[in-house]
Amino acid sequence: MILPITPSFRLDGKRALVTGASSGIGLGAAAALASAGAEVWCVARRLEGLTTLRDALRAQGARAEAAAIDITDLSRTAAFVAQNGPFDILVNSAGMARHSPAVNTTPEDYDAAMNLNLRAAYFLTREVAKGLIAAGRGGSLINLSSQMGHVAGPDRAVYAANKHALEGMTKAMAIEWGPHGIRVNTLCPTFIRTPLAEQTLAIPERRAWILSKIKLGRVGEVEDLMGPIVFLASDASALMTGTHLIIDGGWTAE
User: What is the pTM of this model?
Assistant: First the structure.
């Protein structure tokens, strides 16, 4: 009997671009992809923190680079991708949140969140795909969405709006670029213990509400996402596109 062979989770020879890489989920994504063999380009608005990450990855034998790029600057981002690509893997982890009751949402907060979480994500994903299409290569493009891209919560009208839109964008891009061998998916975590999430977790009543919704009874850690990121980036998910991977401890099972 010839047994089937599990597709490889290795990423040797692949080039990855990770945004928001200076901390939190982005940093974890960079470490995960590097450990699987990818060359990783670490990007964030400020170089501070990125060089420390780059040097730590290199100390472990990984190939890593760092660049200060604000992905809301569309022309500079496009030039960076054209100059340094093509990238086989994208993990777009850059994001922000300005939570408030919907009746108190300001146009400034709305625009800031939409500009980074949706507009910048759209055009970055497009630029990486353009580079792959021009090179005749397939790839795996991963946008960091959220469980709030499938449900909603108090004070999160703007955040849920841009994450729901990110889900639709990802599906449409997957349909268009599937013939080129380019896969596009989202990763949808619950509350993960990061500096951004700590703003909410520090409020006792909000923390109690969060834990009541997560069936496994704990907040997520960055490490909980590292395996799923490698899975989505690798041949182990070769038939997966236009969909989402929810890592939420059971929140959306209701």
Answer: 0.95
